[in-house]
Amino acid sequence: MTVATEPFAxxxxxxAKRDKHELSDEHIDWFVDAYVRxxxxxxxxxxxxMAILLNGMSRxxxxxxxxxxxxxxxxxxxxxxGKATADKHSTGGxxxxxxxxxxxxVAACGVSVPQLSGRGLGHTGGTLDKLEAIPGWRAQLTNEExxxxxxxxxxxxxxxxxxxxxxDRRIYALRxxxxxxxxxPLISASIMSKKIAEGTGALVLDVKVxxxxxxxxxxxxxxxxHTMVGIGNDAGVTTRALLTAMDVPLGRTxxxxxxxxxxxxVLAGGGPSDVIDLTVALAREMLDAATSxxxxxxxxxxxxxxxxxxxxxxxxxxxxxxxxVDAYLPLGQHSHTVVAxxxxxxxxxxxxxxxxxxxxxxxxxxxxEDAIDMGAGVRWHAxxxxxxxxxxxxxxxxxxxxxxxxxALVALSQAFxxxxxxxxxxxxxxxxxxxx
Length: 436
Ligand code: URA
What we know:
The protein is α/β, with parallel strands linked by helices.
């Protein structure tokens, strides 16, 4: 009987990274593959993740580590569509419903959008959760179904299968419980491996900055964006990034059904200006990035929003996945309004605390397996700088579990202030920087 031998010992490679040495391509390929084959134990991958978090990785190491995740599963291929493809990834924020509008907009301009999306965890919402507020809508599609929706509608949003970057799926779960999420090399590899494996030809990253985002400072966000743009371009995906504001929540709503309502307002030609402006900016970036595949966009994003063409694509996209586009979107049966107790100006609206309030009302989950309340969430009636009168409604809370309102109000009380015009918070610009 022959015994398979491994070319390296895990402990030696962990020690190398602990001692700030670079890992070779062979080391990296083996380490990730051996982990997926269960030759490397969970505690060894945890130790490696901590060594990477503490000591970082070179650009070469990050690209190789990302490719090892991609190679752990299938890589999708949309070439038989015969059309350029582009996708967007947001690092997540509060009230971020942009994907739901953006994908039909880009498809209406002539570029296909094959999007694999995720669910929310903690105070940020997830695209699949929002779409599941629509009765009948199905997130789980086979590859053939995904192709069919993409081919007939031009845009699809669905869940990633277990065979897509499985190494990332397992390592991400480990990082979550070993305090190793906040590592730029590991975040970049995690996000980019899934987008590269998804098979998109172009990718625009919306890297959020501010209290409601993963990255709290512009410097951190810029480093993450540069790292991810480098990985994508090295892998042959035309990639660019916008750094965008998440100090104040986006639009006027957070929570699943509430956000779908807002999406419909924007697709009908109305809605909040920040949501419209960011959608149009990201759509133009996606269309421009897709020109490297020979795409010649047929329309402008602002026009397809205004004339209803994007709404037509939305209706087809939702129906193609079983969703009832005309169904009533239920709001929580209990509501509560917070009113201003003095005259003045709204001086501050904090994205993180609004996200926490929405989550406490039932819109988000604490653990992956938790159920969520589609009708839960928060609507804010003013944004920083607006004049306020005593008694004026500032927030409306919705939930199906009345007992949750008390805790949500504690978070909301820290989310805003009313004061003098001179005290209005200095806001980040909606689009802070562009990285190519
Ligand atoms: N999102 C991911 O998919 N991975 C990370 O590591 C962080 C955010």
